[in-house]
Design goal:
The chain is mostly helical and 118 residues long. The chain has helices at 2-15, 17-26, 39-56, 64-88, 98-105.
Length: 118
């Protein structure tokens, strides 16, 4: 039973890889300047979502192609939002003020701290 389900899911994925390509071509803009948003990264993530669609597909509810397109599109949009949200919180050292950068790079060692006066 499990082997036939696995075979059916694998066949669905292999026959519908063009869904990932179409979603990337028409719905998602790849941006190779942003890590993780290049075409290859997005294609790989889209294939993961296509596999997820094959696992959760119920044939009684309609065609696989329309269901998978929605799952892949929603998954990629979520992936892009999560990735760009993480990158917007990152700060480049080049963007920091010189005094803040100097404070981070030149923290005084224990031996260089002024002696406590009593």
């Amino acid at each position: 039973m499990r082997k036939t389900a696995y075979t059916a899911q694998r066949r669905l994925v292999e026959e519908n890889l063009t869904i990932v390509e179409r979603v990337l071509r028409f719905d998602i803009n790849a941006n190779p300047c942003v890590a993780g948003l290049g075409y290859e990264d997005l294609y790989q993530e889209g294939c993961v979502w296509l596999c997820n669609a094959a696992l959760t597909f119920d044939p009684a509810r309609g065609s696989f192609a329309s269901y998978a397109r929605q799952v892949v599109q929603n998954g990629l949009v979520s992936y892009c939002r999560n990735l760009t949200g993480k990158q917007s919180r990152m700060i480049s050292l080049a963007e920091m003020e010189p005094t803040a950068l100097a404070a981070l790079l030149c923290l005084p060692a224990a031996s260089q701290r002024p002696a406590a006066t009593t």
